[in-house]
Amino acid sequence: MQNQKIVIEGGVPLRGDIKIQGAKNSSLPIIAASLLCEGETVIKNCPRISDTYASCRILSHLGCRCNLSGNVLTVSADKKSSCSVSDELMSEMRSSIIYMGALLGSSGECCMTFPGGCELGPRPIDMHIDAMKKLGARVKDEYGIIECSAPHGLKGTKIILSYPSVGTTENIMLAAVKAEGETVISNAAMEPEITDLAEFLNKCGGRIKGAGTGKIVIDGVKKLYGCTYTVMPDRIAAATYISAAAATNGEINILGIDGLLCDSFISVFEQMGCYIYIYDDRVYVNAERPLRSVGKIITMPHPGFPTDAQAVIMAALCKARGSSIFVENIFESRYKQVDALVKMGANIKVSGKTAVVTGVKRLYGSKVSATDLRGGASMIVAGLGADGKTEISDIYHIDRGYENIENIISSLGGKIKRI
Ligand code: EPU
Fold it and tell me: Whole-model pTM above 0.90?
């Protein structure tokens, strides 16, 4: 797996219909949430990506039964036998931190190490720990091992987040859904994936109101029961395929997604000159006109422009007429794709949080390495729009979040293969 590569012969306009995958950033917390449930949880539209497999390894390690068949993941936590996640498992996936709230909420204790790596710059977990303490957990952090316990149970409280962190909001929901009394999260993250997690928990018997707004109120319940739930579509995968259509001046239909979910980035493609029609179950994209540059793109918490779409849209803008400016506000090192794009002929200047992309006539296929998940996807987008052959190594980063990306692009006529 480690030495697989994606090879692309660029220059073919993408055309046709694709069905969008389930959302990674929604399925991962929902999988963790299954720990809180009695009986069987059936998670449909679960993406077959390596982060899902890593989540299954964590659940199995904790003693849960876990079976992924197609896109249906069935979990039973009834025989859960451990509350510790090993360092090896924690380092496989950054979102493993979500098991802190899920384990505290289900067992009143957990032991774990810090989640892996610093792919996008420092990713502290101070807000997660402070929130667990507010809910009544004792947290000991020594030599990189974090031990949390709530011998007297977790108690609902008011938590005001200093920043609307997605992971912290989810961890609080997971810990508080079965806590005693009411928890109120102010300045909560408002991402649609938060709403999806709340809908899952409510379907299991939870009482969560306000998800999708800045104030979430959780009325603790004694028990949750497994249910059958369908994960929402992946809006960032949609942004990636729209970028690929734009980079190749193609025309595609993305099926299985409510276009409104793409609200936070659709206007950028429209400014680029793409015709986009949104329907309640699909998005139509016609990018046959030459692309033009856009005004400033500033990444922000939802409903602002999503940081996860920055790299793929940057790749599409490399050949747009004029200059586009990006300001990356969420993560410190989220321009890691830039060196590869420049190697392919792009004109991009980075200074701190700002990147200026000045459109060039052509990109040239090159040998590049995926630096992170979305950075790797941006190299696919650029490669599809480039002249000649692009070879991308370290594609395990891409496999963390995209299901079958090369088959999907092939089905649209793109010349892409995995070797
Ligand atoms: N932060 C802290 N302290 C904390 C937590 C966060 O300083 O305790 C900072 C982070 O360092 C970062 C900012 O707050 O600068 C935002 O972090 P947030 O907690 O909102 O992000 P996350 O939960 O770690 C999720 C997604 C990311 C996505 C961000 C922002 C999942 C599994 N991951 O990460 O997705 O970029 O929200 O929307 O949901 C991706 O899919 O490629 C990806 C990285």
Answer: yes
